[in-house]
Amino acid sequence: xxxxxxxxxxxRRRLLQFGGSVGVAGLAGCSAxxxxxxxxxxxxxSTASSPSSRPPDTTNRLTPMTGLVDLSSGESYESWFYNEQxxxxxxxxxxxxxxxxxxxxxxxxxxxxxxxxxxxxxPMDGVPEITQDPIPPGxxxxxxxxxxxxxTYLYHSHVDLQLxxxxxxxxxxxxxxxxxxxxxxxxxxxxxxxPSEPNLDAGxxxxxxxxxxxxxxxxxxxxxxxxxSTEENQRIRLRFINGSSSTTYQVGIGGHQMTVTHADGQPxxxxxxxxxxxxxxxxxxxxxxxxxxxTWAIQAEPNRNETEAARAVxxxxxxxxxxxxxxxxxxxxLLSYDDLQSRTQLDVSGKPDRTFDLTLSSGMMMQxxxxxxxxxxxxxxxxxxxxxxxxVRVRLSNRSMMIHPMHLHGHFFxxxxxxxxxxxxxxxxxxxxFDFVADNPGKWFFHCxxxxxxxxxxxxxxxxx
Length: 465
Ligand code: C2O
Ligand code: CU
Fold this sequence. Notes:
Mean pLDDT: 87
Bound molecules: CU-O-CU linkage, copper (II) ion
């Protein structure tokens, strides 16, 4: 059985507050609500998402703010985060709960919060200009929606390059009855760590990336790794979330196989693998059987040769903790989307009602800082129009030399037999086809989840006619 009692395993980094008197907002259970919440007007949640006006089961406060992140290495740097925590607090609830999150913006810039992967009602989606006006500094906004379906998700700012500042955290909707058994449930958030202000120029162009200082798991670096402690003969559910802005990883665990049980939060038939790739915005849940005592690395290797990999540690009880963790070999089978079979498939058999053929490309020599979908760079790009009830097919072909994790808001889609919301389109003429059902009216963003590609044009709006 799943262990609902197990304490949250996400370690909160000690953060020093920048600028004085701001208190830490409470998490689950807090019910105080500021008086400046927008409770009327077009962006209000009160009419948009609570037709039942059912009271929320979970109320949270998120306070985006500036401050100093204090790494255990002794280094600290100014950054932006939620509730004085990096990564942001894990929001966890049960499937079907009504979730309310009051966001009070204490940043110097406008912000929003996006609930990545959850098919929320359109006004709750947190995309500036498309689904809401960004929340001005000093102002508040109430998000409210039903936490469904269950799954491993993330939330993050959707304004400018704020995601790469540290405004990102896990959101877990627990199943009423999981299709797999486990003893312990651990979230592992991968992030590329940028101790300076993100800037579009640094992140752009062919193969160029911002100067990441390293790669973290739950905010911890390889020399002070996050530890998953275990005993022998346990089943540990690890929820991997890639919250990075422009890094794809290959993940493996020394001395252990993994059984993939969920892709982008949705249940799949269990499949045994040695390693998997995870791109920006993707999630994989795996189960690890602890049958090999020792100290082992849970390793996420960036798919470019840079600095040290991100690493957590799987630590068995009664094992000498001073030994360095043994690393995975990355030699066995690597997960492919073809290996995944979702337990609930979308209703997309037969011929689609509408098909979009879209190329993904860069501006090359002419506009090296531009990334395009079908030759157009957002916001100078036509919306993709669909009609409610349609079966829509999207065929993507990648004419660039970089990987593009393409994410659709507000819907799941099906790639082969797996249901996802973010899909890797491999470089060098890689092709991906996905299908979805137009069942959530509104204006939905569809974009590359490489933050720098997104903000250089690789986005479209999918609009219900
Ligand atoms: Cu996590 Cu529009 O993205
Ligand atoms: Cu991209």
